[in-house]
Design a protein that fits this description.
By secondary structure, the protein is an alpha/beta fold. It is built from nine helices and 13 strands. Helix 1 packs across helix 7, helix 7 packs antiparallel against helix 8 and helix 8 packs across helix 9.
């Protein structure tokens, strides 16, 4: 089983010709409302990739809560430990330009009250994986990580949004997933001179004992695990927008590990999922399913 402790949002997405600069207003013709949030996105990505998934988090008691939970429920994510709290459901405000690049502002809302307490009563074991991000309280992430490690399972942190992780949390990780900017922030927070993603991932693996994966956008992914480097080019796809590409990668990567694939096989499936997510608009609506992931893996890597 994969347990995701993380955020649930609604995403308000508008297309723009170009992303605004500081203090600038740009106009979009319309907007769409989608369920999102890194925790929810990664839970859905892992579920659509074939894994049994339980999501722990919080939503409000407002109408946005039902939207935030809608696709998760439809796809069979276990939502028994998603609390309802008396503050608004989290929201993200997303502008997407003509090339598919985006700018995102997130309002935490109920996510600021997410609690890891439910993990204490879950029947966790050696085959389980905990997936974390940084849109819920870090102290609660640390509690969740300690519970999973006590049970003998593995802990994966997606270092998003970018920021220096608590040293105690970092010490309890098995794997870390970051994009190029997030990897650089990690290196700077640790006082490392390395600036290249490959070098940062290698040092994370070799010095900290944490397998490290850095996603490189259209350039693919690089990962270090047990002193061995893996570098994969991204499949060629027609990009609509890049929203949820990283979450699709992370969820599908975790699902592949849970299914018994090795590090390289999991990277292939994560990269295929992230690439496919770029071919459709929005966050959760763009997250691909296992058949499509496996088809692209077969075309691109095998």
């Amino acid at each position: 089983m994969i347990v995701v402790f993380g955020s649930l949002n609604v995403d308000l997405v508008t297309p723009v010709e170009r992303l605004p600069g500081a203090g600038e207003t740009v106009m979009g013709p319309s907007y769409a409302l989608h369920p999102g949030g890194k925790g929810a996105n990664q839970a859905l990505a892992a579920r659509r990739a074939g894994a049994p998934v339980r999501l722990v988090g919080a939503v409000g008691t407002d109408a946005f809560a039902d939207i935030a939970l809608s696709l998760l429920a439809a796809d069979g994510v276990d939502l028994a430990d998603v609390a309802r709290v008396a503050v608004p459901t989290g929201a993200a405000f997303i502008a997407v330009d003509a090339d598919g690049a985006n700018q995102i502002v997130v309002a935490a809302g109920a996510n600021a009250q997410a609690s890891a307490t439910p993990l204490a009563s879950l029947p966790l074991g050696e085959g389980d994986i905990l997936l974390l991000q940084r849109e819920v309280p870090e102290a609660e992430c640390l509690m969740a990580a300690r519970r999973m490690k006590q049970a003998g399972g593995r802990v994966i942190l997606n270092l998003a949004p970018a920021g220096p992780p608590d040293p105690a949390l970092l010490a309890g990780l098995d794997m870390l997933v970051a994009n190029e900017h997030e990897a650089l922030v990690l290196a700077q927070s640790l006082g490392w001179a390395e600036r290249e993603p490959d070098d940062i991932a290698r040092r994370c693996d070799g010095e900290l004992g944490i397998a490290c994966i850095v996603t490189l956008g259209a350039e693919g992914v690089v990962g270090w695990h047990g002193g061995v480097r893996r570098r994969l080019a991204a499949p060629a796809v027609s990009v609509v927008d890049t929203v949820a590409a990283g979450d699709s990668f992370t969820g599908a990567f975790a699902a592949a590990l849970s299914a018994g694939y090795g590090f390289s096989g999991a990277l292939q499936r994560g990269l295929a999922a992230g690439s496919l997510a770029c071919t459709a608009a929005g966050a959760q609506p763009s997250i691909p399913r296992r058949d499509a992931i496996e088809a692209l893996v077969g075309q691109s890597f095998l």
